[in-house]
Design brief:
- By secondary structure, the chain is of the alpha+beta class.
- It contains 13 helices and 19 strands.
- About 10% of the residues have low confidence.
């Protein structure tokens, strides 16, 4: 997850009073606006729950009112604190963390809890209308949808909910939905042309084998495979296309999937055209993520498409750099513009590392895909398995401070009593035992058209060494 606080806003309180709210963005999208006092209360709750294990330094209280410069300094410190906390697996997957950010989203969007209908789409356009509460978190909604289509519990978390944007007869993936947000609120906030879809959440095609004998799970895989081939995400020759059409007309879905798995880019996520400094500066490139790699396609001077792959196991570290350009610096309409850069240090030879940068509006999504592939690789190395509904980390109810200082009770469905089942997910244990690559994801924000370079923007990554030479 990528947390940032790019700016603040002044909000009117009771009477003529105003207060500063810090705008929290998650994975590049506005999530909520909270006061310092709310974050301080959240920090105190974390300390009571986790003690000295809470990472980061929380900025102290001030007696006097803050100057604009001091507000900005506090913003930067709060951003670093939230990034540190969000990178702790145990905290970020716990009910206290999820509850705070879900409550903050609900308050920011002024959404009361009510029974609603939420449309979830499959990739063939089929609509599933789920009966939920407007404040249900993502995993609750996913489990409702899974139950409605009769997907077995053991396969629920092979799939996930994704927010997409429809454009030019196709769509682009905005992000995978997280458990600290309400899909209903997020979709309403996103506006027109956005939908929530159900698609598989794993990267290794070998996991397909787990699903082929389950009718519902296999159908979900089939629908996605057909969609990816039709939209050109998975490539097939004329002969392969003819064979696929034949299998499709016969209703031979398993055989269709087995053939689809042999095709180029099967299971890859594709991104919009962007710019990279590899192989040379300002190279126009098309990037796809899958099969434990980033795939680059570049059109050469002779017009031919050349491609290369960067294995995630050879990335020593990466970082996200956010550049906020002042109004009237680059934008014709006087609005602020934001540039996102993903850069990673890559082992190009046994003892040679090289930084490679990608300038893309989808830089955060690319980094989340990298994180997902690495998490899955670590889980498999540790003998883990996919999460199941009974593995969800639950806890007692908690209270959260609102902007006006009043306390809001967390909803019952958010914090059911802790289960007595001791069969905790092996996957979670595996992820806890190894530092995630996301631990090393750093955001650097500026209010001038500058780029973050040099040692201050670099974060080392231990996972690269943990993966070892066998994966190189």
């Amino acid at each position: 997850m990528h947390f940032s606080i790019p700016d603040t806003q002044d909000i009117k309180g009771e009477g003529n009073s105003t207060f500063t709210a810090y705008n929290i963005h998650v994975n590049g999208v506005f999530h909520c606006a909270v006061r310092y006092s709310q974050l301080h209360d959240f920090h105190e709750k974390l300390k009571r729950e986790y003690g000295n294990a809470v990472p980061g330094i929380f900025p102290p209280k001030k007696i006097l009112s803050l100057t604009p410069l001091q507000v900005d300094e506090r913003r930067e410190k709060l951003e670093k604190y939230i990034q540190s906390v969000s990178q702790d697996t145990r905290i970020a997957s716990g009910p206290l963390f999820n509850g705070f950010f879900l409550s903050a989203q609900q308050e920011t969007q002024k959404q009361e809890a009510e029974d609603v209908q939420l449309d979830i789409y499959l990739l063939n356009g089929h609509k599933i209308t789920a009966q939920i509460s407007s404040t249900d978190q993502t995993d609750d909604v996913l489990e409702v949808v899974a139950s409605q289509i009769e997907l077995a519990d053991e396969f629920v978390y092979y799939f996930a909910l994704f927010l997409i944007k429809e454009e030019d007869g196709s769509f682009s993936i905005i992000r995978k939905m997280q458990d600290f947000e309400s899909p209903y609120i997020s979709l309403k906030t996103a506006g027109n042309k956005h939908r929530i879809i159900l698609r598989k959440s794993f990267w290794d095609p070998a996991y397909d084998d787990d699903l082929l004998e389950d009718r519902v799970a296999m159908n979900l895989l089939y629908v996605q495979a057909v969609s990816d081939i039709e939209r050109g995400w998975t490539l097939a020759t004329k002969e392969q296309s003819a064979r696929l059409e034949s299998l499709k007309s016969k209703g031979s879905k398993k055989e269709y999937l087995r053939l689809a798995r042999t095709l180029k880019y099967y299971g890859f996520v594709h991104f919009k055209p962007c710019t990279s400094d590899y192989p040379v500066k300002n190279t126009k490139v098309i990037i796809a993520a899958g099969n434990k790699e980033l795939n680059f396609r570049v059109r050469g001077e002779d017009g031919q498409i050349k491609e290369g792959s960067f294995k995630v196991t050879r990335m020593r570290c990466w970082r996200i750099t956010t550049t906020i350009n002042d109004a009237n610096s680059d934008s014709e309409d006087g609005e602020k513009t934001t540039d996102l850069e993903l850069s990673y240090e890559y082992l190009v030879a046994r003892e040679k590392l090289q930084w490679i940068a990608i300038l893309s509006e989808q830089a955060i999504l690319i980094s989340i895909c990298l994180q997902g592939m690495v998490d899955e690789l670590i889980m498999k190395k540790q003998g883990g398995r996919m999460k199941r509904p009974q593995d969800r980390i639950r806890g007692k109810r908690s209270d959260f401070k609102r902007r006006d200082g009043n306390v809001v009770k967390s909803t019952d469905n958010l914090f059911p009593e802790s289960p007595t089942d001791e069969s905790a997910s092996a996957a979670q244990k595996a992820k806890d035992s190894v530092k995630k690559i996301s631990d090393k994801l750093q955001s650097v924000s500026f209010k001038q058209p500058l780029r973050a370079k040099g040692p201050s923007a670099l974060v080392e990554n231990d996972v690269f060494e943990d993966i070892g030479d066998d994966d190189l």
